[in-house]
Design goal:
Layout lengths: L11 H13 L46 H15 L6 H8 L13 H13 L11 H18 L4 H4 L7 H13 L7 H38 L3 H15 L3 H8 L10 H24 L1
Helix pairs in contact: 2-3, 2-4, 4-7, 5-8, 5-11, 8-11
Length: about 290
């Protein structure tokens, strides 16, 4: 089956299917601009060597018309650009530069940039491991949660989009279907099953947002410490000022016990602790219903 048929009947993917249908009937090519010339071959532009990193190495040596490209190549190039330069750097012009193609030639495969974003998000969902149901639903969801976290951390730009606009493409739908199958043995209704998956997903997304913030703060802190030779002394003075108020005894325990809640070497441990709490909490909630 055509992968496009697996997207829901709304949004950019649906619009592209309609455009593709018109093109097949001889009314123009997908993405043609009003007033353009139907069937006109787009020009091929050379790539500018600008040293922007691995995104430019994605398709070295290519130089083809739009019909010679594939949608997968376009999406892979867009993901590589987002990974190395940020999601805001992704544009039809930039992708065309990487692939050594004309920007308009990309519209043979895409409706618009929104359609591209949906395809990028769904493509990355193929990297999330969703195990075949083993009968141990907590462990199966734990495997998926860990894998989702790893994908989001590798492609940290995704978190800005995935929590607000889940792409209901074929990879996403396959993952959801297998996730629901994991919960079959619980014999819960569909609404409860979705609540369970959303609860775990929300925890993972929140944990990743926290980790990305920690990474940013860590970089800023390291820069500050390098720039200020009196940093340690200033920190101690701050601790003494807090202690003198008598108002922050519990917070000061964190400093006294040398607990760094954002420590890099405890991120995995902290993620697992929270995930255990979520899964055990769900199990307790279901047991309470059964009782």
């Amino acid at each position: 089956m055509d992968q496009d048929e697996l997207w829901p009947p709304f949004g950019p993917a649906a619009a592209f299917r309609e455009q593709a249908g018109r093109a097949a009937r001889g009314r123009g090519r997908p993405g043609a601009q009003p007033g353009g010339r139907p069937g006109r071959q787009p020009r091929v532009h050379g790539r500018t060597e600008d040293g922007r990193g691995r995104a430019d190495q994605h398709a070295r040596g290519r130089g083809r018309h739009g019909q010679g490209l594939s949608r997968e190549e376009i999406v892979d190039a867009a993901i590589a650009i987002a990974d190395s330069e940020g999601a805001e750097a992704v544009s039809m012009r930039r992708i065309a530069q990487v692939l050594r193609a004309g920007a308009m030639s990309l519209y043979w495969h895409l409706a618009n940039k929104e359609h591209l974003l949906e395809l990028m998000l769904d493509a990355l969902m193929a990297d999330v491991e969703v195990p075949e149901p083993t009968g141990d639903w907590k462990n199966d969801l734990r495997v998926q949660a860990r894998s989702t976290r790893n994908v989001l951390l590798r492609h940290n730009w995704v978190i800005d989009f995935i929590t607000a606009r889940p792409a209901l493409g074929p990879n996403t739908l396959r993952n959801l279907d297998k996730s629901l199958a994991t919960l079959d043995r619980l014999e819960v209704d569909t609404a409860t099953a979705m609540n369970i998956l959303q609860t775990v997903g929300t925890y993972v997304s929140g944990a990743v947002i926290r980790e990305l913030a920690e990474l940013r703060v860590q970089r800023e802190h390291e820069q500050l410490v390098r720039a200020d030779t009196e940093w340690a002394a200033k920190l101690e003075q701050w601790r003494k000022r807090l202690a003198a108020t008598g108002l922050f005894d519990h917070f000061l325990r964190i400093l006294r016990d040398n607990v760094d809640p954002d420590a890099e070497d405890t991120r995995d441990e902290r993620f697992e602790f929270g995930l255990d709490c979520v899964l055990e909490g769900i199990a307790a909630k279901l047991a309470g219903r059964a009782g």
